[in-house]
Specification:
223 residues, mainly alpha, single chain, 11 helices
């Protein structure tokens, strides 16, 4: 598995430093807008996104038929799935570490450009997001990079459609509570730890399914 990790990191060696600067974009953008960014939001979102960028960047290796060569070596097929999951974890940790550095810099007395503090629950939120991203692995192993790209485009489109739908619901709402109000009221009735724990359990289920399906797919994959 060390060989696989080395291959994936070396294939992204030129772009990895830029991934580490991901959170810096938020600090610069908010500074331009004259607003202090929330540290907790940047820490969680940047960590998850860097993990996503690292794992999705590794998917491009199949264009060079890398796995055909790797399978000729004494590498178990399950190790390929294990490596992808470990790569996602390491990428997320890399994102968290780099974000923590910039957070310390911009939260210092010299550059007090942030508000809030890192919440202990942020670690739970990062793990939750990381496990949801693991859903990309079985898609990649089964269908390849192109389908993953279309899948992500579809998710973005769905997100935009949901946002537009929510805006229209709010704009057309009368004085009484609508469906969106009821959903928000139901969700916010839970305590913050309850909401985060529930999402974590759902993400753990998604990760377990992703792992099991990935193992089954790659064991049967013809290279």
């Amino acid at each position: 598995m060390r060989t696989l990790l080395t291959k994936d990191f070396l294939s992204q060696r030129k772009i990895l430093p830029f991934y580490g600067l991901y959170s810096l974009l938020f600090f610069i953008l908010f500074s331009i807008l004259g607003e202090a960014p929330d540290v907790s939001f940047i820490f969680v979102f940047s960590s998850i996104m860097v993990g996503f960028l690292v794992i999705s960047g590794s998917f491009k290796s199949d264009k060079a038929k890398t796995y055909r060569f790797l399978m000729s070596l004494p590498v178990e097929r399950d190790a390929v799935v294990h490596e992808k999951m470990l790569l996602l974890l390491l990428g997320t940790l890399f994102g968290a570490a780099s974000t923590a550095v910039f957070t310390l810099i911009f939260s210092s007395g010299f550059l007090p450009l942030t508000r809030g503090v890192v919440d202990p629950l942020d670690a739970v939120r990062i793990i939750t997001g990381m496990m949801f991203i693991s859903l990309l692995v079985p898609f990649y192993l089964r269908f390849g990079v192109l389908v993953v790209k279309y899948f992500l485009i579809g998710l973005v489109g769905l997100g935009v459609a949901l946002q537009v739908g929510f805006i229209l619901m709010l704009a057309s709402a009368d004085d009484g509570p609508n469906l969106l109000d009821r959903i928000i009221a139901w969700y916010t009735s839970w305590s913050v730890p309850q909401r985060n724990t529930t999402l974590l359990l759902i993400a753990l289920l998604v990760f377990s399914i992703s792992y099991i399906v990935s193992i089954r797919i790659f064991r049967k994959k013809e290279l």
